[in-house]
Amino acid sequence: MKITYAIILLNLFLITSCEDLSNSSKNYLIARVDNNYLYLSDLDKLNLKFTSISDSIIQTQNYINTWAKKYILYDRSLQNIEEYDKNKLNDLIRQYELDLYNNSYKSSLIKAKIDTLITKKQISDYYQSNSFIFKLKEPLYKYRYIEFPKNNIDRNEITKRFISYSHQDKYFLDSLTFQFSNSFLNDSIWFSKKAVLKNVKFLNSKNLLSIKKSEIFEVEETIQVYLFKIENYLPKNEIAPLSFVENTIRNIVFNQRKLKFLKNFDQELINDAIQNKKFEIYN
Question: Does 140 lie in the same domain as 230?
Fold first, then answer.
């Protein structure tokens, strides 16, 4: 039996190794559990990659056995589960099926019907009317940062340019980024405390809070030098700047549109079903 099985699997490997499978080959019957059939075309959909004949035999045998166990166990469960429990399971299956179809249909409607374009003005208007809900739960920082080997021959010039930071200085530093171990020079973007601590190695929660705005740090370790400056700072409980919450507002506005659409859709769905005699409530 094992020899015959191995020959079958070897034949499968030879068939599936051919790039151009004919329809007759794809309909090759591999296995059966009662009235459930496994064809070569089912294996073909899996895009199994075989490195050798032995690998093909192992992978194919594992898949066939897994496929068979599902149906054998399902058949046994039908025979042994109490009728009451079967009915509960069937109710769950039916509810799950309804939810899958309904949610899939609603998702397609949302993509097709809801305007996803949210203008800068709409975002700004929402922010102006609801800024009180955007109180910061942690401080925000604008900063710039460079990390480089302390034996860098341009160290003094890099430090000088980092401090003065004119347009020409920024251009100069940008041209040297290949020399830096790490850097961030766009100090017009707000970052949370967590993000700053993640990006700047020498900082910890305590010393970050002690750094004052516009204070420049030069920290030297065994092999690295760190240059760091906080360009701006907003403490906890301040109102977050619009640029920091813009994406959040965009999501809020879109979700409001979605909820409004779904509410109207649900009502129209009921009204349409009543009008077309598909839905009735009996007294």
Answer: yes
Nearest to residue 187, comparing CAs of 246, 244, 239, 145? Answer: 145
- For 9, other C-beta atoms within 10 Å of its C-beta total 20
What burial class does residue 66 get, using C-beta atoms within 10 Å of its C-beta: 0-12 exposed, 13-18 middle, 19+ buried? exposed
| This model's pTM is above 0.70 | no
Residues 75 and 152 in one domain: no
DSSP percent split of the chain into helix, strand, coil, nearest 5: 60, 15, 25
pLDDT (tens digit, 9 = 90+) per residue, 141-154? 999 999 999 999 99
Closest to 146 measured CA to CA, from 157, 133, 128, 159: 159
**CATH number of the domain encompassing residue 155:** 3.10.50
Q: Please name the residue that has the structure tokens 């102006």.
A: 128
User: How many distinct structural domains can be found in the chain?
Assistant: 2
